[in-house]
Design goal:
single chain; six-stranded mixed sheet; seven-stranded antiparallel sheet; Pdz3 Domain
Length: about 450
């Protein structure tokens, strides 16, 4: 990308802990002169209101505060993902992109006009506290979130390491709100992790799309080179997104050179296409991609590319459905805009905005758990209390014991039904490949 392009494009959901970006300039810059007179007429009215407030409001006001408040309202009125960032907020955003930052470890977005958890980041205070994808945050300490913009909500939740914040959330299936007291900490994200699973199945967990994610993915997959893999699982569950270049870099490792990964299009622009490069690895393992409601933006780009080109079976639940592109525009006083400037489209020219990526095979852990619960309650009364307690004890799942050799295949936790299904499919993949119709 050209170095002179200085603005920023975001394809991730707004995160509480990090906003990852890549320099791409979408707009051509400069307004058409035909709109100049109309704009100045409206600005005259704005100046009149500003003057009246300064003169007559019951308390003394600062012009800067009034203007910034107007800017926040203007951007918030466009869509949930556009926002105005003060100088401090803009600086903090730039610091956060280094991959180590303070916070709770929650990615948030607006879903159905409610402040919603896209996903908690693994090994963070929010993850340890029990925050889950899909939780609706209705209050931060004593502040209701109903009228807060995303950036304002982020500001309320941030704070120094060691301080705490109370989050009140509504969770589907529960009648009463939950209150979590979470202590802020420094968040460090290892975006790619891998292990060998039973049946010689390679497993790669991608938690966020960072600058080095594609390179790190290659390193992790190469560790399986002598393992005679039966297949590969790419786990994008609760991955809220990140860098556009990282999403393309990850996708192209499984696509032939020249294959379309994603395209983006602004209001008055031609589509910009991102294709697999000639130097991509092009791994050809039987492959499964895992997604859920916490998979957003860059995750959806990768999952859709694999699905559209028939490179992987997508398993899980429908993804978050964020298909818009945000551009970061620095302003002269050090503040900045986060402005929605385009939508992105899958290789089959589909927009997943507010729809999400639909899995090839739907496996909903909540539905499975509910079915088990119904089955358990249906059998109540068929046994005496002692046998019931015994059956409950027997039904409890335990963490499977890990082998002493860290390079040996690892067991899958019995509660992870999506991963269990993925491993089962890959272990039987070659069997089904050999099946041929009778002559």
């Amino acid at each position: 990308m050209a170095k002179e392009r200085f603005s920023t494009v975001l394809i991730s959901g707004l995160t509480l802990t990090a906003i990852l970006f890549v320099g791409i300039f979408i707009g051509k810059g400069g307004d058409r002169t035909g709109h100049a007179s109309e704009s100045y007429e409206e600005l005259q009215v704005f100046a009149e209101v500003l003057s009246q407030v300064k003169k007559h409001y019951v308390e003394e006001t600062k012009t800067k505060d009034l203007v910034q408040g107007a800017l926040r309202g203007m951007l918030a009125g466009l869509d949930p993902h556009s926002s105005f960032m003060t100088t401090d907020m803009f600086k903090e955003m730039q610091v956060e992109t280094r991959g180590e930052f303070g916070g709770l470890g929650i990615q948030i977005g607006i879903k159905d006009q409610r402040l919603t958890v896209i996903a908690p980041i693994e090994d963070t205070p929010a993850f340890a506290a029990g925050i889950k994808s899909g939780d609706t945050i209705i209050q931060v300490d004593e502040t209701p979130t109903k009228d807060l913009t995303l950036m304002e909500a982020v500001q309320h939740m941030r704070g120094p390491r060691g301080t705490s914040v109370n989050l009140t959330v509504i969770r589907e299936g529960l009648d009463e709100p939950l209150v979590f007291t979470i202590t802020r900490d420094i968040i460090k994200i290892q975006s790619v992790r891998s292990k060998l699973l039973e049946g010689n199945v390679g497993y790669v967990r991608l938690s966020q799309f960072q600058e080095a994610s594609a390179e790190d993915l290659t390193k992790e997959i190469e560790t399986f080179s002598d393992k005679n893999l039966q297949g590969l699982i790419l786990d994008l569950r609760n991955n809220p997104g990140g860098l556009l270049t990282a999403a393309v870099g990850v996708s192209e490792q499984f696509l032939e050179a020249g294959r379309l990964v994603v395209s983006i299009q602004g209001r008055n622009e031609k589509k910009i296409e991102y294709r697999a490069g000639a130097n991509s690895k092009h791994y050809q393992y039987p492959m499964i991609v895992l997604i859920n409601h916490g998979s957003a933006s860059a995750s959806e780009i990768v999952a859709a590319a694999m699905q559209d080109w028939g490179k992987a079976v997508v398993i899980g639940t429908t993804s978050f459905g964020k298909g818009s592109v945000q551009t970061i525009l620095p302003l002269s006083d050090g503040s900045g805009l986060r402005l929605t400037t385009a939508k992105y489209y899958t290789p089959k020219d589909k927009s997943i905005h507010s729809i999400g990526v639909q899995p090839d095979i739907i496996i909903d852990p909540k539905a499975i758990q509910a079915a088990k619960q119904d089955n358990t309650e249906a059998k109540k009364g068929e046994k005496d209390s002692s046998s019931t307690e015994a059956s409950k004890a027997k039904a409890k799942t335990k963490e499977p014991e890990k082998p002493a050799d860290p390079d040996a295949p690892q067991p899958v936790h019995p509660d992870d039904v999506q991963l269990l299904k993925a491993v089962e499919m890959l272990k039987s993949w070659k069997v089904f490949e050999k099946i041929r119709p009778a002559a």
